[in-house]
Amino acid sequence: MRKVVLVIGFLFLWIPEINLFAQGSDSIPATKLFIRDIIIEGNKVTKEKIFIRELIFHQGDTIEKMDLLPALEQSKENLLNLSIFNFVSLDVQHYPGNKIDVIITVTERWYIWPTPILEMADRNFSAFLEDFDWTHTNYGLWLKWNNFRGRNELLSAKVRLGYKEQYLLEYEKPNIGINQNHKIAFGYSFMRQHRVNYQTLDNKPVYYKKFPEYALNLGDAYLAYTYRPGLYSKHKLRAHFLYDWLGDSVSTLNPNYFGEGKDTLKGFRLDYVFNYDIRDSKVYPLDGHAFKVKVQRYGFGIIKDYPYNNWLLEGTSFYHKKLSNKIYIANVTRAKISSNKEVPFIQQKALGYAEYMTGYERFVIDGSDFFISKFITKFQILKPTSFQLPLIKAKQFNKVHLAIYMNVLADIGYVNNKSSYLDPSNDMALDPSNYMANELQYSFGIGLDFVTYYDKVFRMEYSINRYVKDGPEFRGFFFHLETPFFRW
Fold first, then answer.
1. 82: left (phi over 0), alpha (psi -120 to 50) or beta
2. Helix, strand and coil percent figures for the chain, each rounded to 5
3. Cα–Cα distance between 470 and 295 in angstroms, integer?
4. Domains (ranges, CATH) in the chain?
């Protein structure tokens, strides 16, 4: 507990950002430029203060000539990372006396998205192909109003039916305060499903399904506060009230699903996240680094029948480096440690769920602690290219971005599962068929990434894992449509 408090206290001492620019325009030296004005064009919706918050220079600053181009490029990346513009360009108009105007031109995205939902509900595309059951799909409507009121607010509502039902309403308000560095958010989500993964055997999920009853119901009401002291660092505190319940048969099949044979589980959870990110892109980074630390607390003794009070500590690091015009390397590493090893099954989701190793898409590995490290070498096949779609007139859609990269992949990972380890008399014991837990795992692969607009990345790859000699299910082609590491 004491160490966790010290870690949180240290993180609040964020790295101060260095001001490279001085104020004033009197007697400007020949090596410097005075920023006379900042002109913004193309923003029919977005308010001017949203732009100003992301720039590393301001009107009235004096800047070294040699620092101008890096400052423009960094400011452009900051604006693109808001994910509310398709394209951003910064230009300079020169005037006598070493004075300049900075001209920002943007193409805004389409912000109101009544998006139809038609998606696979399995853990990944490979799991879907293995079962190949078309009932494992979700459908519905997700209404997202990005850049709501032109202030980068988000208002969203979701009705998702089918395999995993979800009803969601949430609101985010950023840019609060004199320095626009505070954000609040609140929302409620309710999910339910007829089919649930109640156990893991042979390193694969085992399911129970029953109609018309629902096997699993998950309710989550939350309130969140975010503090952004600088352009690249962020603190987030989020409080949840969780109220989950099971169908009668699930708690009978696995008394450890909620623990102690319970069919309901309600309690509080508190999350603290610190994020420091200076990558060139959050969608598909090629250069820069970032790290994130998350501290979670389950249960506070407020609800007495909540049996598993627990601290969780997670850390994630991102490193991306451009070696040449066409070659890039990256390493992404994530680790989680839990103070309580005897947690219920629902809290033992380690690898194969939100995080997976290359070549292990067909499998899941449960446990209280884990680490995973991915090493990637990228070769640029098609440099980022933009082209017009002649039959579409709307600016938000008619200009398409495309880039293609070949990847060489290598992963390593480990999951710790010591829940009453292999004790057959205990409901919490690890089944001996789940041999991937408590063993070092590794894999290799090669693939192609197609990066296009609206933050979409299509990846296809061929990969093998450490058990490749044991059969064809330990190798194969895998497909993904997502933003890599965005959930991390």
1. alpha
2. 10, 50, 35
3. 39
4. 2-108 (3.10.20.310), 194-482 (2.40.160.50)
* CB neighbour list of residue 128: distance below 8 Å, 6 or more residues apart: 120, 122, 136
| Interstrand relation of 216-227 and 475-482 (parallel, antiparallel or unpaired) | unpaired
Q: Give the distance, in angstroms, between the CA of residue 369 and the centroid of all CA atoms in the same chain.
A: 20
How does 404-434 read in b/e, with b if 16+ C-beta sit within 10 Å?
Answer: bbebebbbbbbbbbebeeeeeeebbebbeeb
Contact call for residues 485 and 457 (beta carbons, < 8 A): no
126-156 pLDDT, tens digit per residue, is: 666 666 677 778 889 888 887 877 777 888 9
333-355 b/e with 16+ CB inside 10 Å = b? bbbbebebbbbbbbbbbbbbeeb
Q: Contact at 8 Å (CB) between 279 and 314?
A: no
Residues 32-45: tens digit of each pLDDT: 999 999 999 988 88
Strands 99-108 and 32-41: parallel
Do 152 and 84 meet the contact criterion of CB atoms below 8 Å apart? Answer: yes
User: How far is Cα 46 from Cα 100, in angstroms, rounded to an integer?
Assistant: 24
